[in-house]
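Case study: Two component transcriptional regulator, LuxR family.
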Amino acid sequence: MTRRDVVLVVDDTPGTLGMLNDALESAGFMVLLAQSAAAAFSVIERVAPDIILMDAIMPGMDGFEACRRLRRLPELTNVPIVFMTGLTESASVVRGLEAGGVDYVTKPLRPDEVIARLGVHLANARLARSSQAALDVAGRYLLAVDPEGRILWATPQARSLLAAAGLDACVPSLAGQLDRNPGGSLVGPSLELQHVGQVSDEERLFRVMPAADPEREATLLKERLQLTSREAEVLVWLGRGKSNRDIADILLLSPRTVNKHLEQIYPKLGVENRAAATALTVKIISST
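Here is what the predicted structure looks like once written out:
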Protein backbone atom coordinates (compact mmCIF):
# COMPACT_ATOMS: atom_id res chain seq x y z
CA MET A 1 0.00 0.00 0.00
CA THR A 2 1.40 3.41 -0.98
CA ARG A 3 2.05 5.73 1.94
CA ARG A 4 0.03 8.94 1.84
CA ASP A 5 1.71 12.30 2.45
CA VAL A 6 0.67 13.84 5.77
CA VAL A 7 -0.45 17.48 5.74
CA LEU A 8 -0.91 19.45 8.95
CA VAL A 9 -3.38 22.32 8.45
CA VAL A 10 -3.28 25.08 11.08
CA ASP A 11 -6.08 27.67 10.97
CA ASP A 12 -8.35 29.23 13.59
CA THR A 13 -11.39 29.22 11.26
CA PRO A 14 -13.45 25.99 11.36
CA GLY A 15 -14.86 26.63 7.90
CA THR A 16 -11.39 26.84 6.35
CA LEU A 17 -10.31 23.68 8.16
CA GLY A 18 -13.36 21.81 6.90
CA MET A 19 -12.94 22.94 3.31
CA LEU A 20 -9.23 22.07 3.22
CA ASN A 21 -9.81 18.73 4.94
CA ASP A 22 -12.28 17.70 2.24
CA ALA A 23 -10.16 18.97 -0.66
CA LEU A 24 -6.90 17.44 0.57
CA GLU A 25 -8.46 14.12 1.52
CA SER A 26 -9.98 13.91 -1.98
CA ALA A 27 -6.52 14.57 -3.43
CA GLY A 28 -5.08 11.58 -1.55
CA PHE A 29 -3.45 13.32 1.43
CA MET A 30 -3.73 12.28 5.05
CA VAL A 31 -4.89 15.43 6.85
CA LEU A 32 -4.20 16.55 10.42
CA LEU A 33 -6.04 19.62 11.74
CA ALA A 34 -5.14 22.18 14.39
CA GLN A 35 -7.13 25.30 15.30
CA SER A 36 -4.19 27.13 16.94
CA ALA A 37 -0.42 27.14 17.04
CA ALA A 38 -0.45 25.48 20.46
CA ALA A 39 -2.66 22.70 19.11
CA ALA A 40 -0.26 22.26 16.16
CA PHE A 41 2.67 21.65 18.51
CA SER A 42 0.60 19.04 20.36
CA VAL A 43 -0.16 17.26 17.08
CA ILE A 44 3.51 17.29 16.04
CA GLU A 45 4.52 15.65 19.32
CA ARG A 46 2.51 12.61 18.22
CA VAL A 47 2.83 12.65 14.41
CA ALA A 48 5.48 14.29 12.22
CA PRO A 49 3.83 15.80 9.12
CA ASP A 50 5.38 15.85 5.67
CA ILE A 51 4.23 19.43 5.05
CA ILE A 52 2.48 22.18 7.04
CA LEU A 53 -0.15 24.62 5.78
CA MET A 54 -0.13 27.50 8.28
CA ASP A 55 -2.52 30.45 8.72
CA ALA A 56 -0.45 33.60 9.16
CA ILE A 57 -2.83 35.51 11.44
CA MET A 58 -4.28 33.65 14.45
CA PRO A 59 -5.19 34.61 18.02
CA GLY A 60 -2.40 34.08 20.53
CA MET A 61 0.72 32.90 18.73
CA ASP A 62 0.55 33.92 15.08
CA GLY A 63 1.77 31.79 12.20
CA PHE A 64 5.04 33.68 11.83
CA GLU A 65 6.14 33.00 15.42
CA ALA A 66 4.88 29.41 15.20
CA CYS A 67 6.97 28.90 12.06
CA ARG A 68 10.10 30.27 13.74
CA ARG A 69 9.63 27.86 16.66
CA LEU A 70 8.90 24.90 14.40
CA ARG A 71 12.08 25.58 12.47
CA ARG A 72 14.06 24.96 15.67
CA LEU A 73 12.82 21.35 15.84
CA PRO A 74 15.38 19.03 14.19
CA GLU A 75 12.71 16.54 13.12
CA LEU A 76 11.10 19.26 10.97
CA THR A 77 14.29 20.24 9.14
CA ASN A 78 12.99 19.20 5.72
CA VAL A 79 9.28 19.80 6.36
CA PRO A 80 8.05 22.68 4.16
CA ILE A 81 5.78 25.31 5.75
CA VAL A 82 3.38 27.10 3.41
CA PHE A 83 1.56 30.18 4.72
CA MET A 84 -2.09 30.98 4.13
CA THR A 85 -2.82 34.66 4.34
CA GLY A 86 -5.23 37.35 3.29
CA LEU A 87 -2.37 39.81 3.48
CA THR A 88 -0.98 40.74 0.09
CA GLU A 89 1.48 43.44 1.15
CA SER A 90 5.06 42.53 0.23
CA ALA A 91 6.26 43.16 3.79
CA SER A 92 3.97 40.42 5.10
CA VAL A 93 5.14 37.98 2.42
CA VAL A 94 8.78 38.74 3.26
CA ARG A 95 8.02 38.28 6.96
CA GLY A 96 6.66 34.80 6.29
CA LEU A 97 9.66 33.77 4.21
CA GLU A 98 12.08 35.16 6.80
CA ALA A 99 10.31 33.13 9.48
CA GLY A 100 11.14 29.95 7.56
CA GLY A 101 8.20 29.51 5.21
CA VAL A 102 8.82 28.26 1.69
CA ASP A 103 5.74 29.72 0.00
CA TYR A 104 2.36 31.35 0.59
CA VAL A 105 -1.18 31.15 -0.78
CA THR A 106 -3.70 33.96 -0.47
CA LYS A 107 -7.25 33.79 0.81
CA PRO A 108 -9.85 33.14 -0.42
CA LEU A 109 -8.14 29.83 -1.11
CA ARG A 110 -8.33 27.98 -4.40
CA PRO A 111 -8.00 24.27 -3.53
CA ASP A 112 -6.47 23.31 -6.87
CA GLU A 113 -3.72 25.89 -6.43
CA VAL A 114 -3.08 24.81 -2.84
CA ILE A 115 -2.77 21.15 -3.86
CA ALA A 116 -0.43 21.99 -6.74
CA ARG A 117 1.86 24.04 -4.50
CA LEU A 118 1.92 21.34 -1.84
CA GLY A 119 2.94 18.79 -4.47
CA VAL A 120 5.88 20.93 -5.64
CA HIS A 121 7.20 21.49 -2.12
CA LEU A 122 6.77 17.85 -1.12
CA ALA A 123 8.83 16.83 -4.15
CA ASN A 124 11.56 19.31 -3.22
CA ALA A 125 11.59 18.05 0.37
CA ARG A 126 11.95 14.44 -0.80
CA LEU A 127 14.89 15.50 -3.01
CA ALA A 128 16.56 17.19 -0.03
CA ARG A 129 16.14 14.06 2.11
CA SER A 130 17.51 11.88 -0.69
CA SER A 131 20.53 14.16 -1.08
CA GLN A 132 21.27 14.00 2.64
CA ALA A 133 20.91 10.22 2.64
CA ALA A 134 23.31 10.05 -0.31
CA LEU A 135 25.88 12.02 1.69
CA ASP A 136 25.55 9.43 4.46
CA VAL A 137 26.12 6.57 2.03
CA ALA A 138 29.26 8.35 0.83
CA GLY A 139 30.52 8.56 4.39
CA ARG A 140 29.86 12.30 4.66
CA TYR A 141 27.91 12.66 7.90
CA LEU A 142 27.18 16.38 7.85
CA LEU A 143 25.30 18.96 9.88
CA ALA A 144 24.84 22.71 9.69
CA VAL A 145 24.45 25.04 12.66
CA ASP A 146 23.59 28.71 13.06
CA PRO A 147 25.82 31.18 14.97
CA GLU A 148 24.21 30.15 18.28
CA GLY A 149 24.93 26.47 17.68
CA ARG A 150 21.33 25.49 16.83
CA ILE A 151 21.24 22.61 14.36
CA LEU A 152 19.69 23.74 11.06
CA TRP A 153 19.85 20.35 9.36
CA ALA A 154 21.75 17.09 9.55
CA THR A 155 22.06 13.97 7.44
CA PRO A 156 20.29 10.91 8.92
CA GLN A 157 23.44 9.20 10.24
CA ALA A 158 24.81 12.46 11.61
CA ARG A 159 21.54 12.97 13.46
CA SER A 160 21.79 9.47 14.94
CA LEU A 161 25.30 10.20 16.23
CA LEU A 162 24.14 13.52 17.68
CA ALA A 163 21.13 11.92 19.37
CA ALA A 164 23.35 9.25 20.94
CA ALA A 165 25.50 12.05 22.35
CA GLY A 166 22.44 13.95 23.65
CA LEU A 167 22.83 16.76 21.11
CA ASP A 168 19.52 16.51 19.26
CA ALA A 169 18.76 20.20 18.76
CA CYS A 170 21.74 22.33 19.69
CA VAL A 171 25.52 22.22 19.99
CA PRO A 172 25.95 25.52 21.86
CA SER A 173 29.72 25.32 22.31
CA LEU A 174 30.46 25.03 18.59
CA ALA A 175 30.56 28.74 17.83
CA GLY A 176 33.00 29.52 20.64
CA GLN A 177 35.24 26.56 19.84
CA LEU A 178 35.25 27.46 16.17
CA ASP A 179 36.33 31.04 16.95
CA ARG A 180 39.30 29.63 18.90
CA ASN A 181 40.08 26.87 16.39
CA PRO A 182 38.79 28.06 13.00
CA GLY A 183 40.38 25.39 10.82
CA GLY A 184 40.53 22.29 12.95
CA SER A 185 38.39 19.65 14.55
CA LEU A 186 36.11 20.29 17.51
CA VAL A 187 36.32 17.42 19.92
CA GLY A 188 33.75 16.48 22.55
CA PRO A 189 33.41 13.51 24.92
CA SER A 190 32.02 11.19 22.25
CA LEU A 191 32.05 13.09 18.95
CA GLU A 192 34.50 14.88 16.70
CA LEU A 193 33.13 17.66 14.50
CA GLN A 194 35.32 18.76 11.64
CA HIS A 195 34.64 22.23 10.24
CA VAL A 196 33.94 21.87 6.51
CA GLY A 197 33.12 25.47 5.68
CA GLN A 198 30.81 28.44 6.13
CA VAL A 199 27.83 28.36 3.79
CA SER A 200 26.70 31.84 4.85
CA ASP A 201 26.84 34.18 7.84
CA GLU A 202 24.02 32.13 9.35
CA GLU A 203 25.14 28.60 8.45
CA ARG A 204 28.32 26.68 9.27
CA LEU A 205 28.88 23.17 7.98
CA PHE A 206 30.49 20.34 9.99
CA ARG A 207 31.35 16.71 9.42
CA VAL A 208 30.42 14.44 12.35
CA MET A 209 32.46 11.45 13.46
CA PRO A 210 32.69 9.41 16.67
CA ALA A 211 35.57 10.73 18.79
CA ALA A 212 38.85 9.28 17.54
CA ASP A 213 40.27 6.15 19.14
CA PRO A 214 42.76 5.13 16.42
CA GLU A 215 44.03 2.01 18.17
CA ARG A 216 40.55 0.59 18.77
CA GLU A 217 39.41 1.54 15.26
CA ALA A 218 42.48 -0.02 13.62
CA THR A 219 41.88 -3.26 15.53
CA LEU A 220 38.24 -3.26 14.45
CA LEU A 221 39.08 -2.66 10.78
CA LYS A 222 41.86 -5.24 10.82
CA GLU A 223 39.52 -7.93 12.13
CA ARG A 224 36.47 -6.97 10.09
CA LEU A 225 38.24 -6.45 6.76
CA GLN A 226 41.16 -8.90 7.01
CA LEU A 227 43.82 -6.21 6.74
CA THR A 228 47.39 -6.00 7.97
CA SER A 229 48.04 -3.81 11.00
CA ARG A 230 49.57 -1.05 8.89
CA GLU A 231 46.78 -1.18 6.31
CA ALA A 232 44.22 -0.81 9.08
CA GLU A 233 46.07 2.21 10.47
CA VAL A 234 46.13 3.86 7.05
CA LEU A 235 42.42 3.17 6.60
CA VAL A 236 41.55 4.70 9.99
CA TRP A 237 42.96 8.06 8.95
CA LEU A 238 41.59 7.79 5.43
CA GLY A 239 38.14 7.46 7.00
CA ARG A 240 38.77 10.65 8.94
CA GLY A 241 39.29 12.63 5.79
CA LYS A 242 43.09 12.86 5.91
CA SER A 243 45.15 13.25 2.74
CA ASN A 244 47.96 10.86 1.87
CA ARG A 245 50.47 13.42 3.08
CA ASP A 246 48.62 13.86 6.37
CA ILE A 247 48.46 10.08 6.86
CA ALA A 248 52.15 9.83 6.09
CA ASP A 249 52.98 12.47 8.71
CA ILE A 250 50.78 10.79 11.35
CA LEU A 251 52.17 7.28 10.75
CA LEU A 252 55.75 8.41 9.99
CA LEU A 253 55.63 7.03 6.47
CA SER A 254 56.26 8.50 3.02
CA PRO A 255 53.24 9.54 0.94
CA ARG A 256 54.38 7.00 -1.69
CA THR A 257 54.22 4.21 0.91
CA VAL A 258 50.73 5.33 1.94
CA ASN A 259 49.64 5.19 -1.70
CA LYS A 260 51.05 1.65 -2.05
CA HIS A 261 49.10 0.56 1.03
CA LEU A 262 45.92 2.01 -0.47
CA GLU A 263 46.54 0.09 -3.70
CA GLN A 264 46.53 -3.09 -1.62
CA ILE A 265 43.56 -2.03 0.52
CA TYR A 266 41.07 -1.29 -2.28
CA PRO A 267 40.94 -4.87 -3.67
CA LYS A 268 40.63 -6.31 -0.16
CA LEU A 269 37.63 -4.06 0.48
CA GLY A 270 36.13 -4.77 -2.94
CA VAL A 271 36.09 -1.08 -3.84
CA GLU A 272 37.66 0.90 -6.66
CA ASN A 273 38.44 4.30 -5.19
CA ARG A 274 39.15 6.44 -2.17
CA ALA A 275 35.57 7.67 -1.73
CA ALA A 276 34.14 4.15 -1.56
CA ALA A 277 36.84 3.04 0.90
CA THR A 278 36.12 6.07 3.07
CA ALA A 279 32.39 5.38 3.06
CA LEU A 280 32.89 1.75 4.11
CA THR A 281 35.34 2.75 6.84
CA VAL A 282 33.02 5.38 8.30
CA LYS A 283 30.10 2.95 8.23
CA ILE A 284 32.04 0.28 10.16
CA ILE A 285 33.48 2.66 12.74
CA SER A 286 30.19 4.51 13.28
CA SER A 287 28.23 1.28 13.80
CA THR A 288 30.15 0.33 16.93
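For the exam, be able to explain this: The chain has three domains: 6-134, 143-210, 214-286.
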